[in-house]
Amino acid sequence: MSKSVIAVVGSAMMDLTAYADTLPEAGQTLLGQLFTTGFGGKGANQAVIAAHCGADVHFIGKLGRDLFGDSIAANFSTVGINTDSLERGENPTGVAHIWVDGHGENRIIIIPGANHDIEISQAKKAIQSIPDLSVVIAQCEIKQDVTLAAFTAAKARGCTTILNPAPFEAVSDELLSVTDWLIPNETEFKALTQTDAHDEKNLVSFRVGKCSIVTLGSQGAVLISAKGELTRVSAPPVKAVDTTGAGDAFVGTFAFGLASGMSEENAMALGIKVASFSVTRKGAQSSYPSQAEIKTLS
Ligand code: RIB
Fold first, then answer.
1. Residue nearest to atom 9 of ligand 1 (CA)
2. How close is the Cα of 229 to the center of ligand 1, in Å?
3. Which of 11, 16, 45, 183 to mutate to test the pocket of ligand 1 (most atoms within 8 A of CB)?
4. Which of 4, 92, 98, 245 is the residue whose CA sits 20 to 30 A from 294?
5. Max CA pair span of the chain
6. CATH label of the domain that carries residue 45
7. What is the C-alpha to C-alpha distance for residues 206 and 17, in angstroms, rounded to an integer?
8. Taking Cα atoms as reference points, which of 285, 252, 290 lies closest to residue 41?
9. What is the DSSP string of 64-103?
10. Residue whose CA is at the smallest distance from ligand 1 atom 10
């Protein structure tokens, strides 16, 4: 069977995470329980889970010439991700400062660093040259004009494009026109539409003519067809210890599902199982199921 070929044009970060039952208010100092350093960045997370699922993944991005950059590059090799289009730049590797509270909820500040130096020509050339490419994914931790160039090149060769508008920023009409699947979470949906994703009429009228999925955390996700039909899939009940990277786990798994010929509904259902599994462990990529574990979920 031929492999499902996916390209991620996106961010890679080192996640510096503090775990504390209660997070401090402004001016307050509190005792935490744990500090970890782990591989993150929304683009890298989505690439890694797609690779765990069995896809042939190409990562298009930029790291600094520093120790974080060296270890992220080494991690991509360990996972088996193609890094022919991963460059090094003058700015430092991106980092994310993360606080996780006793309910597993997080607050994140990202410092994009080298991620903001990915060049339009780099992204375009990569998308045009990857053999048998079928799905291209992007997020909003890199410059939007780079994503636009990558998606335009992807559509020119007949690929499916998936945009995860996270962290939220206004997305240009030009980028939306070359985006097949838009996958916001409920907060991003609200920012995009100024309406509530829990009211069905807002979902039905979202992006008529194009497909979307709105992820709803512990309530699963809803697929909105181009005609405005809704398909809901609920999430299995789990005890969440850290929700960091769960949305990325969903997006990368869904992309794998589409690239490997699953129905949209089955790809979404697998994405929800993988994302739900990920919240039961700490960290972003460190929480993701292995290929063997994914087989037990599907
Ligand atoms: O979506 C989770 C990710 O957001 C973290 O890994 C962090 O790096 C930030 O980019």
1. 41
2. 31
3. 45
4. 98
5. 58
6. 3.40.1190.20
7. 35
8. 285
9. ESSHHHHHHHHHHHHHT-B-TTEEEESSPPEEEEEEE-TT
10. 41
* Mean model confidence pLDDT for the chain: 97
Closest atom, ligand 1, to C-alpha of 94 = 8
What are the catalytic residues? Answer: 248
What is the Å distance from ligand 1's center to 233 Cα?
A: 24
Owning domain of residue 112? 5-23+32-297
Which residue type does 174 have?
Answer: E
pTM (predicted TM-score):
0.97
Expressed in angstroms and rounded, the spacing between residue 228 Cα and the centre of ligand 1 is 30
Alpha helix ranges (H) inside the chain: 42-53, 67-79, 120-129, 144-156, 173-177, 186-193, 200-204, 246-259, 264-278, 291-297
Contacts of residue 33, defined as CB under 8 A and 6 or more positions apart, other chains included, come to 19, 20, 21
Domain count, the chain: 1
Q: What is the pLDDT of residues 190-212, one digit of tens each?
A: 999 999 999 999 999 999 899 99
Ligand 1 proximal residues by C-beta, below 6 Å = 13, 15, 40-42, 45, 96, 108, 110, 141, 244-245, 247-248, 284
Residue with structure tokens 């996780």? 100
